Fold this sequence. Notes:
Chain A is built from four helices and eleven strands, in the order H-E-H-E-E-H-E-E-E-E-H-E-E-E-E. The first copy, chain A, is of the alpha+beta class. A five-stranded antiparallel beta sheet of chain A has the order 2-3-1-4-5, with no helix packed on it.
Amino acid sequence: MRAKITKAAAKKNGIKTKRTISLISDGTVLDHIDPEAVFKIVRILRIDECDDQVTVGNNLKSKYYGRKGIIKVEGVFLTEDDINKVSVISPHVTMNIIKNYEVVKKFKSELPPTIEGIIACNNPNCVTNVEHIRTRFKVAKSEPLALFCTYCERTMHREDIEVRLIRK
Amino acid sequence: MRAKITKAAAKKNGIKTKRTISLISDGTVLDHIDPEAVFKIVRILRIDECDDQVTVGNNLKSKYYGRKGIIKVEGVFLTEDDINKVSVISPHVTMNIIKNYEVVKKFKSELPPTIEGIIACNNPNCVTNVEHIRTRFKVAKSEPLALFCTYCERTMHREDIEVRLIRK
């Protein structure tokens, strides 16, 4: 049973106990994820429904941000659109496409001009909260984030954001 | 950048690329989790809100069940109650309490006699679906699972189970 291995044995076997999540041979690595956003991203990108090998690390040490999350999906190649979609809840995500243990593509998330679905409008009277309508926001400002609801015309800020799972 | 390391370099550094998630020194390891249940358990046990280092693996190879999930939480010691609570959505979970890389306590989840909250009643007319009332089921049978709703007296089976996040 893996966890029975002692630190000494781990060292003897050359296991780097500092390495929290192993390498993947082929697939996608999302790095520098805001710790608050990691498991939301798992749900938004449906990584929780994926049949392929998935590893998620959270609250890992980060040189730049103090703490960060990482998501690795074996055999799945996410797109730039996928990452831009989640940049609204985690601005600094980087995506690495891995083939045979090499990074063949590296991409930094960018806020798209509009955000559809994913997040709810914080105006309880907004039609998107009353009827079954997909939310739609224009990104008015990226830093600090300002999102303009195209339905009720209210402006939301980062602290107002509540993830809504459109798939459910 | 971690993922840039080639397979050769990985071998040279003695990194076991077979080891998906590293050891933890002190904390809790949940093993043999049903792949469908892993991220539900993360939410039920509020591991997604945890500030400590968390690693989650899903669809990992399992000798007994084909595929399995693993959750490791550094510095957090879950209780037998926590694990029994989730046994309704994943029957074979084992919990290992780790101290200084050694398993100091091992526990196999058991279905408790009653299950409160966590799952919804599948009867749309049940009062727990109409008013803000915590669900309560008696475990009538464990294999195959039969849950008796103490409010509407309907019996549910495993395929009827829908996780409800009582915290939200």
